[in-house]
């Protein structure tokens, strides 16, 4: 019994791309997980769920934006995949965002470079990704 699962492929830079799943329906329309920090940068509270088959936004909970991460939680692999996935969703370079808090926790705070995207644009792009 074999499952038809997409295989990861090597890109030209030697990194492995992870397949993206269809996003789950949003469990809440609240954008409490996206805010401005004291420096005026957009901050996203994330509740990470590493070890998933593929990266996807699973919904919103009281812990923040639930993100399934298509990488294991070892040696920073899940953190790297989380930043890559969010950069892709938001349409920015991975270097334009950083993991501010939670490098060894499921509760994380991802911060975008100042004046890169407005709070409303970030909320809308995350909401669009949730809808699939």
Describe the structure.
The chain is α+β, with helices and mostly antiparallel strands. It has helices at residues 77-90, 119-131, and strands spanning 34-36, 42-50, 56-61, 64-69, 97-101, 107-112. Residues 1-16 and 22-30 have low confidence and may be disordered.
Secondary structure layout:
Elements: E1 34-36, E2 42-50, E3 56-61, E4 64-69, H1 77-90, E5 97-101, E6 107-112, H2 119-131
Parallel strand pairs: 2-4
Antiparallel strand pairs: 1-2, 2-6, 3-4, 5-6
Strand content: 25-35%
Query: How far apart, in Å, are the first and last alpha carbons?
Result: 29 Å
Q: N-to-C SSE series?
A: EEEEHEEH
User: Structural class of the helix and strand makeup?
Assistant: alpha+beta
Approximate helicity band = 10-25%
Count, helices: 2
| Mean pLDDT reading | 83
Radius of gyration: 14 Å
Shape: globular
Contiguous runs where pLDDT drops below 50 for at least 5 residues? 1-16, 22-30
Count the strands?
6
* Largest pleated sheet: 6 strands, mixed
Short synopsis of the structure:
It contains two helices and six strands; from the N terminus they run E-E-E-E-H-E-E-H. The radius of gyration is 14 Å and the shape is globular. The relative contact order is 0.21.
Question: What attributes does this structure have?
Answer:
6 strands, 6-stranded mixed beta sheet, 27% strand, disordered N terminus
């Amino acid at each position: 019994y074999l499952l038809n699962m997409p295989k990861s492929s090597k890109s030209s830079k030697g990194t492995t791309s992870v397949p993206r799943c269809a996003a789950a329906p949003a469990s809440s329309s609240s954008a409490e997980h996206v805010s401005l920090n004291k420096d005026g940068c957009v901050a996203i509270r994330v509740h990470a769920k590493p070890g998933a088959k593929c990266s996807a936004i699973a919904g919103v909970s009281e812990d923040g934006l639930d993100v399934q991460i298509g990488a294991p939680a070892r040696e920073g692999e899940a953190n790297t995949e989380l930043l890559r996935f969010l950069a892709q969703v938001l349409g920015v370079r991975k270097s334009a965002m950083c993991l501010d808090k939670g490098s060894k926790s499921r509760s994380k705070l991802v911060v975008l470079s100042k004046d890169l995207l407005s709070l409303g644009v970030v909320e809308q792009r995350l909401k669009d990704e949730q809808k699939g």
